[in-house]
Amino acid sequence: MSVAELKQLALALPPEDRADLAEVLWESLDETVPPISDEFLRELERRDKEMESGEVVGHTHEEVMAEAKRRLQC
User: Fold this and answer.
1) pLDDT recorded at residue 57
2) Which candidate, 6, 2, 28, places its Cα nearest to that of 18?
3) pLDDT of residue 37
4) Which of 41, 52, 54, 61 has its CA 20 to 30 A from that of 5?
5) Sign of CA dihedral 22, 7, 36, 64
6) Are 43 and 51 in contact (CB under 8 A)?
7) Contact 18, 11 (CB under 8 A)
8) 8: phi then psi, degrees, rounded to nearest 5
9) Distance CA 47, CA 70 (A)
């Protein structure tokens, strides 16, 4: 079975089963993902505080993609 066929079958599952499958697949990657360094964790915490305080305003996926297309002149 190809990956494309597997994807098609997975997407045909009910939402609860897809969520369960996604969790199992995600957990299978835990061993291949390198641990987060203390420095990176501090950076994540700093950025989170900036977002929570309102110092930095986030952008939606749609906004980011529109800006990327504009810059790439797509």
Assistant:
1) 92
2) 6
3) 93
4) 61
5) negative
6) no
7) yes
8) -60, -45
9) 26
Q: What is the pLDDT of residues 21-56, one digit of tens each?
A: 999 998 888 777 788 899 999 999 999 999 999 999
How wide is the angle at C-alpha 61 spanned by C-alphas 36 and 7, nearest 5°? 75
- Which residue type sits at 11? L
Amino acid 35: pLDDT: 82
Radius of gyration of the chain (CA): 19
Q: Does the structure show a pLDDT above 80 at 3?
A: yes
pLDDT value of position 34: 80
Place of tokens 């599952």: 13
Beta strand extents in the chain (DSSP E only): none
For residue 30, the model assigns a pLDDT of 74
What DSSP assignment string belongs to 46-67? HHHHHHHHTSS----HHHHHHH
